[in-house]
Write a structure and sequence with these properties.
It is built from 9 helices and 7 strands. With 218 residues, it is an alpha/beta fold. Helix 1 links the parallel strand 1 and strand 2.
Length: 218
């Protein structure tokens, strides 16, 4: 079983998908990890990125650097008078992953400075949430084709529960609706807002496992 390291793992949305795809998953984040379902290391990801021997002890590395700088929901938070983060850890995360020489995936939001990314959409996986996300990799991966028409009106999992959004739109009414939309029954609302649906990383993980070992690095 290949070992996968999930950096900035949060509550484990990406980790859950990779686990379903067949990986032995370890996550690292500064949060307490009480609801994280797999092997967990509480710590500063930036420190672990400096330890190339540690990174090289894994077969695959996934990273989801903080995305508030690039998220379109930053404008919503500004409009609602909520604080926003200007953090952008993509460049230094990428540099460390390249230095490790390991196959990697970096996930972030549309508008983020990823290099030749693929895009995934919840409508491609029969999910109620839409949540477009980009994935950069040094492996050859294939994105999904959106099917918004078949999906219909998506369930919003951002901002606050039962939130009326300026210029139309509405978020999930209950936590259970948000959990069902994301496919993450163990997470609380603030964690769902920051996560990616496990269906995304399961899709990517299955592609990686099916790649010949000599093609896992482009």
């Amino acid at each position: 079983m290949m070992k996968l390291l999930d950096l900035y793992c949060g509550v484990g949305g990406a980790s859950a998908g990779y686990y379903k795809a067949g990986f032995d998953v370890t996550g690292i984040d500064l949060k307490h990890g009480r609801r994280y379902p797999y092997k967990y290391i509480k710590g500063d990801v930036l420190l672990y990125l400096q330890d190339l021997d540690f990174l090289r002890s894994f077969d695959i590395i996934h990273a989801s650097p903080p995305c508030q700088t690039h998220s379109i929901t930053q404008h919503l938070r500004n409009a609602q008078g909520k604080s926003t983060s200007k953090l952008d850890l993509i460049p230094q995360t990428r540099a460390a992953l390249i230095a490790s020489g390991k196959p990697y995936v970096i996930e972030n939001v549309p508008g983020s400075p990823l290099i030749n990314p693929i895009q995934l959409c919840g409508s491609s996986f029969a999910l109620q949430v839409r949540r477009h996300r980009l994935f950069e990799s040094n492996m050859k991966l294939t994105g999904s084709v959106c099917d918004h028409k078949a999906q219909g009106r998506p369930v919003g999992v951002y901002g606050s529960l039962n939130d009326q959004i300026p210029k139309g739109g509405k978020t999930a009414t209950t936590i259970d609706e948000g959990r069902d939309a994301m496919g993450m029954p163990w997470a609380i609302w603030t964690e769902l807002v920051e996560a990616i649906p496990p269906a995304y990383s399961e899709y990517i993980g299955k592609q990686i496992i099916n790649l010949p070992s000599d093609l896992r690095l482009c």
